[in-house]
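$ run holo --ligand "S-adenosylmethionine" --emit tokens
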Amino acid sequence: MIRRAPHVIPYQGSKRKLAANILTFMNFDIECFYEPFAGSAAITLAAAANNKAKHYVISDKLETLSDLWEMIIHHPQKLIEEYYALWHGQLTDPAEFYKQVRDGYNKTQSPSALLYLVARCVKNAVRFNNEGEFNQGPDNRRLGLKPEKLMKEVHAVSKMLKHKTDIKRGDFRKVLKSCTANDCVYMDPPWQGTSGKRDQRYAHILNMDELIEGLDSLNERNIPFLLSFDGTCGDRTYGSELPGELRLVKVSLNAGRSSQATLLGRDEVTIESLYLSPALAKKNKTKAEIKHSQKELFESI
Ligand SMILES: C[S@@+](CC[C@H](N)C(=O)[O-])C[C@H]1O[C@@H](n2cnc3c(N)ncnc32)[C@H](O)[C@@H]1O
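-- output --
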């Protein structure tokens, strides 16, 4: 049974629902847990709530997101006050106010404005244009996460992570230079698919070569890591195969019913792949035991 983690950023791509499953592969001593593609840092929050590591590193290439994490953990009261002002400021004319905050955010990159926009935008699904500007519209049916709820969650996260967390910024390969074989890394990268079309869900995306280079370097240094990468929904597959030379063990996780498919009248389950590095698979269990726990995960859902 894992303890519920507090949760601050209501981000559509969050791995919150899979956190309990992912944590079952982290049953070994971890000096420092790294989440270099943090987003809403769902796995760090779950890991910390369950005392999986002594220290944590939260990092993202989107600098404002790292600034937001800095505020959540080290300046919670300031963040709560700024969010409170934004949330109440919208009450007279929510749609116009949202537009003003979005324009302001694109000029100043204020972390509290980013939180407000994520909480208020359509499906909590961020979108960026080619210039890296936030361009998602508001969800006009709701006002976004209430300040009272935010206050409770922010204080809980700050208390939990304050004395044991470093916030970093930049490309994951730079951030992971400091990690060692006693640490553990969880990665959920936005990779550039083969279509060549820019993925608007992210301000920054990776190409496959950059990702493989980063994974290869972690393997060379014997660093245990977990990687969320591809998956299937119904008969559709997303993501692509990773090279065999990386010697990763693939585990399939049941991410539940797809709300998008349900909206379209299809009853489909999303299966997400989690890849375990050779060093992590060794620390954990044999391949046969991993297969067994995978079976249990499926049966528990
Ligand atoms: C799929 S989201 C991660 C979601 C996260 N697992 C969660 O639970 O919320 C990927 C994140 O990686 C960041 N990113 C993109 N390219 C990066 C890079 N080269 N290095 C580090 N972070 C990057 C994006 O800004 C985005 O926040």
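-- notes --
The chain has two domains: 16-64+163-299, 70-150.
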